[in-house]
């Protein structure tokens, strides 16, 4: 005679435990994917900001003018990212050089010359005054 009480398959409790483990694994995977996308966006924005800082610095070299001691804010957007470049020029102990700092921030939506949020890029260099030198 056969016993009719033998089980074939999973109980309801075993299925629920399996579904809970699967749900936890999927949530963890989605969190990792979201974090990866956010990191990629930040890296992309910092890359575009560094391009803007390089452009602003190259403009100084190409104009071949001695930069004035001042702080200047300009719109330096790249692609679809609104950016503002802040160029600060300082004296150095050597009168033939000036220190130039270029900081790049995301710009405010209402005014493209108003910085918003944390700094995305910064370049600092010394510019030589070739106009007054005897070289």
Helix content: 25-40%
The number of E-state strands comes to 4
Return the CATH topology: Pantoate--beta-alanine Ligase, Chain: A,domain 2
| Rounded Rg | 29 Å
**C-alpha termini separation:** 111 Å
H/E element sequence: HEEEE
Major sheet strand order: 1-2-3-4
Poorly predicted runs of 5 or more residues: none
CATH class: Alpha Beta
Characterize the biggest β-sheet.
4 strands, antiparallel
Q: Structurally, how many domains make up the residues?
A: 1
CATH homologous superfamily? Answer: GSPII I/J protein-like
Secondary-structure-based class equals: alpha+beta
CATH architecture descriptor = 2-Layer Sandwich
Mean pLDDT across all residues, rounded?
Answer: 88
What is the molecular shape? rod-shaped
Number of helices: 1
Instruction: Report the portion of residues in β strands.
Output: 25-35%
Description:
The chain is of the alpha+beta class. It has one domain (12-128): 2-Layer Sandwich (Pantoate--beta-alanine Ligase, Chain: A,domain 2), CATH 3.30.1300.30. It contains 1 helix and 4 strands, in the order αββββ. A 4-stranded antiparallel beta sheet has the order 1-2-3-4, covered by helices on one side. The longest helix is centred in the N-terminal third of the chain and has 52 residues, at 12-63. The chain is rod-shaped, with a radius of gyration of 29 Å. The termini are far apart. 14% of the residues are buried.
């Amino acid at each position: 005679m056969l016993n009719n009480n033998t089980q074939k398959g999973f109980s309801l409790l075993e299925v629920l435990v399996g579904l809970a483990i699967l749900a936890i694994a999927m949530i963890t995977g989605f969190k990792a994917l979201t974090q990866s996308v956010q990191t990629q966006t930040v890296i992309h924005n910092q890359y575009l900001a560094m391009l803007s800082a390089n452009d602003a610095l190259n403009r100084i070299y190409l104009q071949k003018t001695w930069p004035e001691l001042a702080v200047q804010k300009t719109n330096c957007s790249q692609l679809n990212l609104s950016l503002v470049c802040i160029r600060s020029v300082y004296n150095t102990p050597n009168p033939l050089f000036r220190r130039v700092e270029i900081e790049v921030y995301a710009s405010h939506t209402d005014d493209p010359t108003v910085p918003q949020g944390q700094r995305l890029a910064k370049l600092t260099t010394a510019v030589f005054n070739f106009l007054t030198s005897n070289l």
